[in-house]
From TrEMBL:
Record-listed E.C. numbers: 4.2.1.118
Protein name (Swiss-Prot/TrEMBL): 3-dehydroshikimate dehydratase
Keyword terms of this UniProt record: Dioxygenase, Lyase, Metal-binding, Oxidoreductase, Pyruvate
Species whose genome carries this gene: Thauera propionica
Record's catalysed reaction(s): 3-dehydroshikimate = 3,4-dihydroxybenzoate + H2O
GO molecular function terms listed in the Swiss-Prot or TrEMBL record: 3-dehydroshikimate dehydratase activity; dioxygenase activity; metal ion binding
Every VOC domain range: 305-424, 453-602
Length: 639
């Protein structure tokens, strides 16, 4: 199946859009009318440009307010459409999108609409053009796809079919099941868009908040499955209106768009291949799978959490960060065999400080200062994990390998940092330690006050990049996103979203701010675009752990006494427990499923900090309600 995208999805000039689309490996485009109108060249020029880039032109769109009009207006509309046909012939575009009328004077007469669409299809047939009729979710009379299909059936013309747009169908809550009953050859075209759930006017929702598959909340897997069961074999095309995308760099957005189609195709391929109880449905799925070839990358191997966190440092910052780690209870566990790299350990946590000249870490340090430059993810099959990532368009990374050193597969993440896929053997995540000369571990048994594991990684992202990272973690690691939330910073709002694997061995928190003055925005500026702003460690007894760490000299943020005065008004808590939390600066959150105790260190070098957490029960959040207290405390102490 051809993969296509509407030019309206991207920022930039038409030339920039087409070049980015071709670079992202799309097969074809939809030419959005305004992009052509504002292009300084002819339709033939656009056709030649697309041909030179290896792109087909699948659709020209949109043509508005054609049907359901008076006879006089209909004659004027036929004159209008002939002009569009002239453009399409010069473009080499075989299909025209005609959306249901939104005009205030549109006539609610299905027979009239069908007759007018028949006449339009007759005109189109003379030019060898097909008409795709789309039900707009906010149109005057024809809002639902089943209504549009009724009119297309009544018109009964071979050059007229229904155009299905996932947003218009799913935003209204329509059940896509009936799509499977539409003959596949009468589905003229398919447009795909995801979206977060919004309680707002559907036109505004559509124009500003659509996103690519895998970035929103719509069930696009079921939607596309029904389309394929109908027998559709045409292009899979993206049509996304999004203010952020139209302001974001063109090429990264095009890459995200292509990755989103691959993500959706894989999910549907699994659905079509899945066994079921209904014989007829299984037969239909087998027939659909035989008609189309969907993207089927290597499956996600078992992932066993974070194998290590690597910091890029120089000599001075290495010394300072090593003191922080020592106070947090980490021990120096070994030196690299051939590089200026040191390993620190505590519990199941491995931290690497990399000060090697001429390395990737050094280039990362030169750009971002002391910062996290790489994460190691333990997996049963590192090669399969690597091949899956590269199938989704992630660049491989090949580092300098010394004698007798382990070669660990790696890719570049969206911010340019590295993700290593570390082979785990017999439940161990530490095969990479073959590269290190390890010190004696006889005194390394875990104590009740130790930090045990990495709970989550929190990232502060540049504006417009939260959706891209959400899709990255879903496609590459199989993470599932939680709901987006707004955090109140003293200088603006921060949008936060958690993404975690089903077993919660990997958790990431993605923060982004549209303001330039929030804590997140300032951290991104300080890090020059690097993303990780804090690492969260879990423990079994946070009170004992924090007491020990304070005695070690760890500096935690000072929380306002007013926070603890207010806490009993929000939760049923024992006064002694609240007093104990206040004495240690521990924050608290709870849901019906469990509790979350946590505390934050001061910021290191104005760039990142650490969090200590204790989860009780099945609490699955990240203490978002306490973010304002944390941000205010960091703001006050960093001034």
């Amino acid at each position: 199946m051809r993969r296509s995208i509407a030019t309206v999805c991207l920022s930039g000039t038409l030339e920039e859009k087409l070049e980015a689309i071709a670079s992202a490996r799309f097969d074809a485009v939809e030419i959005f009318e305004n992009d052509f109108i504002n292009y300084h060249g002819t339709a033939a020029d656009v056709r030649r440009l697309c041909h030179d880039l290896g792109l087909g032109i699948d659709l020209y769109q949109p043509f508005r307010d054609f049907e359901g009009v008076s006879d006089a207006q209909f004659r004027r509309n036929l004159d209008r459409v002939e002009r569009k046909f002239d453009i399409m012939e010069a473009l080499g575009a075989p299909q025209l999108l005609v959306c249901s009328s939104c005009a205030p004077d549109a006539i609610a007469d299905d027979a009239r609409s069908a007759a007018q669409l028949y006449e339009l299809a007759e005109r189109a047939a003379r030019r060898n053009i097909t008409i795709g009729f789309e039900a707009l979710a906010w149109s005057r009379h024809i809002r639902h796809y089943q209504h549009a299909w009724k009119i297309v059936k009544e018109a009964n013309h071979p050059h007229l079919g229904i155009l299905l747009d996932s947003f218009h169908i799913l935003s209204l809550g329509d059940d896509p099941a009936a799509i499977a009953d539409i003959p596949g050859d009468k589905i003229a075209f398919l447009q795909l868009a995801d979206a977060p759930y919004k309680v707002m006017d559907v036109l505004q929702w559509s124009r500003h908040f659509r996103c690519f598959p895998g970035q929103g909340n719509f069930d696009l897997v079921t939607f596309l499955e029904k389309v394929l069961l109908a027998g559709y074999t045409g292009p899979l095309s993206l049509e996304v209106f999004n203010d952020h995308f139209r302001a974001a760099p063109t090429r990264p957005t095009a890459i995200d768009a292509y990755r989103s189609l691959l993500y959706l195709e894989e999910a549907v391929e699994r659905r079509l291949a899945a066994p079921g109880d209904e014989v007829l449905l299984n037969q239909a799925r087998e027939a659909a799978a035989a008609r189309v070839e969907l993207f089927s990358p290597p499956r996600i191997p078992a992932l066993d959490g974070l194998a290590f966190i690597e910091f890029a440092v120089d000599t001075e910052s290495e010394r300072a960060l090593a003191q922080v780690l020592d106070a947090l209870g980490f021990r120096r566990a070994g030196e690299h065999r051939s590089k200026a790299v040191t390993l620190y350990r505590q519990g199941d946590i491995d931290i690497i400080l990399n000060a090697e000249p001429g390395s990737f870490a050094r280039s990362h340090f030169m750009q971002h200062g002391p910062s996290i430059c790489a994460l190691g993810i333990a997996t049963e099959d590192s090669l399969r994990a690597l091949n899956r990532a590269t199938a989704f368009g992630c660049p491989r990374f090949e580092g300098r390998i010394g004698p007798n050193e382990l070669k660990i597969p790696a890719i570049r993440a969206p911010d340019g940092s590295l993700i290593y896929f570390v082979p785990s053997t017999q439940g161990s995540k530490r095969l990479f330690e073959i590269d290190f000369l390890l010190e004696d571990e006889t005194a390394s048994a875990l104590s009740p006050t130790d930090l045990q594991a990495v709970d989550h990684i929190a990232q502060g992202l540049p504006q417009l990049r939260q959706d891209a990272w959400t899709l990255f973690y879903r496609a590459i690691l199989g993470g599932e996103p939680g709901e987006s939330m707004d955090l109140v910073d003293p200088y603006g709002l921060i949008s936060t979203r958690g993404v975690a694997t089903a077993d919660r061995k990997l958790r990431f928190v993605l923060d982004v701010s549209d303001s330039d003055t929030t804590t997140t925005a300032r951290t991104i500026t300080q890090l020059a675009g690097a993303s990780v702003h804090h690492v969260s460690f879990s423990c079994a007894d946070i009170f004992a752990t924090v007491e020990r760490l304070r005695a070690n000299g760890v500096s935690f943020i000072p929380v306002s006494p007013n926070y603890y005065d207010d806490l009993p008004t929000r939760f049923v808590l024992d006064d002694a427990l609240v007093a104990r939390m206040a004495a240690l600066g521990i924050l608290y959150d709870a849901t019906a499923e469990g509790e979350y105790f946590h505390v934050y260190t001061q910021v290191f070098a104005e760039r990142f900090f650490f969090e200590i957490v204790q989860r009780n029960g099945a609490y699955d959040g990240y203490g978002a309600a306490n973010a304002p207290a944390r941000m205010m405390a960091h703001l006050r102490t960093n001034r």
